[in-house]
Amino acid sequence: MVLLALFGLYLWRAATGEQSEPDLVGVARRVGEMPPRLRRLTVAGMFVAATVIVLLAAEPFAQALVSGGRQLGIDEFLLVQWFAPLASESPELLVAAVLALRGHQDASLGTLLSSKVNQWTLLVGSLPVAYAIGGGAAGGIVLDARQTEEFILTAAQTLLGLAVLIDLRFALWEALALFALFAVQFPFPQTSVRLALAAGYVAIAVVLLVRRRAEIPKIASAALGGRQ
């Protein structure tokens, strides 16, 4: 409930923030040029069509993913943990890449940050609800040791990302450093090593937050609706 409430707060803050006219191209421009009623019906139809496609494709995709991984000798957990999210999040990655190539760096990074907020609030918060609706226990989902380890590692990486972006600047060396820190986990599947990596991410994040502590009040003010 807390995570879902945070997502609601995020939607409210995004809706009441500064607005600007988007630079539409291609299909988006054609939809944007439609009369208001037709445009709303078209967008609603896209949402419905996307929902139907996801419902039809989700289970076959998951089964094919696991089955293909078994045939290739790839660990099932790693497939579900890494390959499936990359496939499902490819639209955000493609949109962000196109925006960056066209010089819209703010919109590009904003697309990825919005996706991250959705994952850590709406998605994670909805899992116990979906589990209960699907016949699971109302008490929630019990995580095993490996799931807990991955959850902690991902949360630590998120904290590090926040610390890097706290000054609202994202240099090339910071991007390369984040990628290197992300990639270093793959050769080490051991629980102790991955928990040590998570501790290292948190330590680096704390150092960055202390060094950039002057930026924290500005970010908090902006998040609450004030101006930087």
Task: Provide a descriptive summary of the structure in words.
By secondary structure, the chain is mainly α. The protein has a domain of 86 residues.
Q: How much helical structure, as a percent, in the residues?
A: over 70%
* Largest sheet geometry: none
Residue runs with pLDDT of under 50 for 5 or more positions:
none
- Termini separation (Å)? 30 Å
Strand proportion: under 5%
List its salient traits:
globular; 228 residues; mainly alpha
Strand and helix map with partners:
Blueprint: H1 2-16, H2 26-32, H3 36-72, H4 76-88, H5 90-101, H6 105-133, H7 145-165, H8 172-183, H9 191-211, H10 216-223
Helix pairs in contact: 1-6, 3-4, 5-6, 7-9
Gist of the model:
The chain has 228 residues and is an all-alpha fold. It has helices spanning 2-16, 26-32, 36-72, 76-88, 90-101, 105-133, 145-165, 172-183, 191-211, 216-223.
